[in-house]
Amino acid sequence: MNKFYDSLTEPERKSAQEVALKYGRTLHLDYERLLSAKAVSTCPYYVGLSSEMGGFTHVTKRIVLVTDTVLLSDHGIGTVHELGERSESHVTADTSSTREALFTRYRYGMVTKDLAELGQWLLDAEPLLRSGLVWYGPVFTEGSRGTSSTVSLEVTEPGPLPSFSDRSIDFVVEHGRAVDLSRDKPLASRVVRPILEIDLPFIDGLSLSDFAQVTREEFGSYTQYRDFMRSRLLELDDALEAVDSQVSLERVALSIRDEVNAATSQMNSAARTRALIRSGAVLGTTSAVLAAVRPDALQGALATSATLAAGATGLWPTIQAFADVKPKRARGKWHYVWVLQKKIAS
């Protein structure tokens, strides 16, 4: 999707409707190839999911926590928005062996309920689409097949709407629950269905644009947390439709929240401790930054002056410890959740 986003001009980005229309035109050229790639993919967590446009943000922030790639589509209910025309040409031969070029032209469009809402979602979710975590599959429609000669080119009208579930959609989200259509991806079903029902406070109240930005910037930590979520959800009983399924979901939700809260408390405490250390450091904040970026440079600087080095005898280990702790924290799965929660608080 980098090609699409790189092609957007600033004036186009100011119009959500134009963004949606341009996305449809861009994707139409590669749509069949992308669907074929999904069909042959062996990844158990590459899923197609259809949701009402009004629930796109809610669904996106949850489904990304457990899947590798999501083809997200709406239900194909709404207005046909014309995208353009395409033509096909072929040559026929009559009985006198003369050849005549015939052309078929089609109007094509995509069906969606709210073009502006779709365009805004595409802008907010840009980091996710650029990272390959999500892409939107429009419901395309075009005129019925017909031919015309070079003298009179006929433009056919859009035909019947195609089924939105053909070849692409594995789950349909209705009333906050995912209905499994394919039955071909049991692992995905075990994590996709419950993730939509579990209460996750660290993403509720967070804008989609902030969620997408953090997910891209903290990708390593995010992938670790994704594995954690999968393992917890796979622990659920097979019969999610059973009477006690809500009890099982709530147990998992409580377990996740407990671990999130404990990890967040530790990280906030560590952050406050490091802030106090930095504020009291003789060499100031600049030294701490230098230590985090190039600890060898700071160590060399301290050694250049006997007086300075003597006065900072106990400082270097402290600064070095700060530089060592930060990357370790950033590599952990809870760092991703911690950053998401800090985004909500900021």
Could you explain the architecture of this structure?
This protein has a five-stranded mixed β-sheet. Strands 3, 4, 6, 7 and 8 form a five-stranded mixed β-sheet that branches. It has helices spanning 2-7, 10-13, 16-28, 31-40, 56-63, 115-124, 126-130, 186-195, 208-217, 219-233, 245-280, 284-293, 295-303, 306-311, 315-331, 333-345; strands spanning 46-50, 69-73, 79-93, 99-112, 134-136, 139-142, 148-149, 155-156, 171-174, 177-180. The two termini are 30 Å apart. It is an alpha/beta fold. The protein is globular. β9 (171-174) and β10 form a beta hairpin.
List the helices and strands and how they pair.
Elements: H1 2-7, H2 10-13, H3 16-28, H4 31-40, E1 46-50, H5 56-63, E2 69-73, E3 79-93, E4 99-112, H6 115-124, H7 126-130, E5 134-136, E6 139-142, E7 148-149, E8 155-156, E9 171-174, E10 177-180, H8 186-195, H9 208-217, H10 219-233, H11 245-280, H12 284-293, H13 295-303, H14 306-311, H15 315-331, H16 333-345
Parallel strand pairs: 1-2, 1-9, 2-5, 4-8
Antiparallel strand pairs: 3-4, 4-6, 4-7, 9-10
Q: How many strands?
A: 10
Largest sheet: number of strands, sense, barrel closure? 5 strands, mixed
Category from helices, strands and their pairing? alpha/beta
The helical percent reads 40-55%
H and E string: HHHHEHEEEHHEEEEEEHHHHHHHHH
Mean pLDDT comes to: 75
Strand order of the largest sheet: 5-2-1-9-10
